[in-house]
Design brief:
Belongs to the krueppel C2H2-type zinc-finger protein family. This protein has 340 residues and is of the alpha+beta class. It has eleven helices and 24 strands. It has a domain of 38 residues: 2-Layer Sandwich (Double Stranded RNA Binding Domain), CATH 3.30.160.60. It is 39% helix and 15% strand.
């Protein structure tokens, strides 16, 4: 009796994306796809997107509803998830937990660190056609392009200022909230900005301890810590006042002085106290006011060590030691320490 020997079933081979797959490989792929489907078993009823946890699905649903239950206590911003709020808070506090392993430069979020890392590798494929500067990421080039077009999409909700970079807005917000996360290692004085342009700048302050003033005026031998300070000073010699008020045409030597002047017309008081809700036209007025709550007296008398919250009060007090009375009444021939 002839027994027909059954031929073994040949292994089916199929080509997919240039690779050869066997039945066994295909079975493993199906198992993996089923596992991935199971992993994302929480589906959004509005768009069909899948998530591995119910919590992630709930966060996603807020993108449809617009719900933002996590509010920042320092500004009016709200967020759909707690991790976004935590990241935002680092900008208020000046925290930078992500540091570059190559140069130790610190960043407030992981994405900014990743963008920075490209500067070390030399891989900068995104080039500006206007000035030929190159960047590692497309988003970095987009930020840079705003400097050419003057685009400032990040607006302060407490005043009319706008910024081209979100980190500059975060630094500006500290002028409203009064938060000063940066302290001087020499005198412990606190600042709202580390290297941000403005008066409350730690980097600029540190130079006051070293005495280094590399920017010299050629007209009067005065020296300055920064080039911008020298530029402001030079206008005192030239009389130049390039910033004029649109309401009364009064001219000013600095943009900051113009901004302060404009508030005398508008009555705008963007700096408010979070303790008693009192509002002020200038950040410096708020800083002085806050000392009434904190009891801080940063100005001390060199003769008796008595402390004062305002520098002018210290100056008035010092005259009691030296006996100087600059304010003279001609009617009664009496002199006084202060004009009040």
């Amino acid at each position: 009796m002839n027994v027909t020997k059954e031929e073994p079933e040949p292994v089916q081979i199929k080509e997919e994306h240039g690779d050869l797959w066997s039945n066994e490989d295909e079975e493993q792929l199906v198992v993996k796809q089923e596992a991935d489907t199971f992993k994302k078993s929480f589906l959004c009823g509005l768009c069909g997107k899948g998530f591995s946890t119910k919590g992630n699905l709930n966060i996603h649903i807020r993108t449809h509803t617009g719900e933002k239950p996590y509010a920042c206590g320092m500004c009016d911003k709200s967020f759909s998830c707690s991790s976004h709020l935590a990241r935002h808070m680092r900008m208020h506090r000046g925290e930078k937990p992500f540091s570059c392993p190559t140069c130790a430069k610190a960043f407030s979020n992981r994405r900014s660190l990743s963008i920075h890392m490209g500067s070390h590798t030399g891989n900068m494929p995104y080039t500006c056609k206007m000035c030929e500067k190159s960047y590692s990421f497309c988003s970095s080039l987009a930020y840079h392009m705003r400097t050419h077009f003057g685009d400032k999409p990040y607006a302060c909700e407490m005043c009319d200022k706008s910024f081209s970079v979100v980190s500059h807005l975060a630094g500006h917000m500290r002028t409203h909230t009064g938060v000063k996360p940066f302290s001087c290692p020499t005198c412990a004085k606190r600042f709202s900005h580390k290297g941000f342009s403005g008066k409350n700048n730690l980097s600029k302050h540190i130079k006051t301890h070293t005495g280094w003033k590399p920017h010299c005026c050629e007209m009067c031998d005065k020296s300055f810590i920064s080039g911008s300070d020298l530029a402001h000073h030079m206008r005192m010699h030239t009389g130049e006042k390039p910033f004029s008020c649109p309401t009364c045409a009064k001219g000013f030597s600095t943009k900051g002085n113009l901004s302060r002047h404009i508030r005398t017309h508008t009555g705008d008081k963007p700096y408010y106290c979070k303790v008693c809700n009192k509002s002020f036209s200038f950040g410096s007025y708020l800083a002085v006011h806050m000392r009434t709550h904190t009891g801080e007296k940063p100005f001390s008398c060199p003769s008796c060590a008595q402390g004062f919250s305002i520098k002018s009060n210290l100056s008035k007090h010092i005259r009691t030691h030296i006996g100087r009375k600059p304010h003279h009444c001609e009617m009664f021939d009496k002199s006084f320490i202060s004009g009040s």
